[in-house]
Write a sequence for this structure.
């Protein structure tokens, strides 16, 4: 079954038109929410300009990679200060904190010094969440096999969801980290937006036939794929 086709079809059925709309569905920042908390003002020119800048950034892979790198620097600071406890800050769609309120409050409070001159309102909460997840995954320096040596497929299926119908990059990422944790970790070992990242993504998909993604999808930016993998690796590591 061609899951790449299903992903494209699912996006069409859901009426995702344009890069930014599709990106939001796959984990790009919801530009109606700002990191400082609360809904954005649609009538604010400052907010409108900020949203337009975000749209431009996520249409440009190089800008998206730069934004992710900036988020990783901030995330490194957060994790350095709090260690594994930083996992409590992770939020977003599908979590108990869909509007990133914990992260928002923390970045304007305890972790203000980690902003490195950046404005909390200019950050992407989704990318910062993924960057924190990536840093937390990297704290585990034990050797991880490319392919899982053993796997409870029932538990894995519950984690990644049904792959028999329309799927998202989140489903695919969650599937790949269960079957190929080492290959997924190798994606995070590369620089965001680099040729090495693309090659690592290709090796992950090709090496995980269970997930039905044979090659790197061109309809989803590499940063969104990487962030989904980071989120999935951390979430899988927390499964009991």
């Amino acid at each position: 079954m061609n899951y790449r086709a299903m992903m494209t079809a699912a996006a069409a059925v859901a009426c995702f038109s344009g890069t930014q709309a599709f990106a939001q569905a796959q984990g790009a920042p919801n530009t109606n929410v700002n990191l400082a908390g609360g809904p954005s003002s649609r009538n604010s020119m400052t907010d409108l300009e900020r949203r337009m800048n975000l749209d431009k950034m996520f249409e440009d892979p190089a800008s998206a990679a730069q934004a992710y790198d900036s988020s990783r620097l901030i995330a490194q600071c957060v994790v350095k200060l709090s260690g594994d406890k930083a996992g409590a800050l992770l939020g977003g769609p599908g979590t108990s904190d869909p509007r990133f309120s914990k992260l928002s409050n923390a970045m304007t409070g305890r972790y203000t010094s980690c902003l490195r001159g950046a404005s909390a309102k200019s950050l992407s909460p989704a990318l910062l969440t993924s960057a924190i997840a990536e840093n937390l995954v990297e704290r585990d320096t034990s050797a991880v096999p490319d392919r899982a040596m053993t796997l409870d497929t029932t538990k894995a299926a519950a984690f990644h969801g049904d792959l028999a119908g329309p799927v998202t990059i989140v489903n695919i990422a969650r599937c790949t980290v269960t079957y190929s944790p080492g290959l997924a970790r190798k994606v995070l070992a590369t620089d965001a937006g680099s040729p090495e990242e693309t090659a690592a993504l290709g090796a992950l998909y090709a090496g995980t036939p269970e997930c039905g993604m044979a090659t790197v999808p061109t309809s989803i930016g590499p940063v969104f794929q990487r962030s989904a993998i980071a989120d999935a690796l951390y979430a899988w590591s927390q499964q009991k």
In short: The longest helix spans residues 61-82. The chain has eleven helices and no strands.
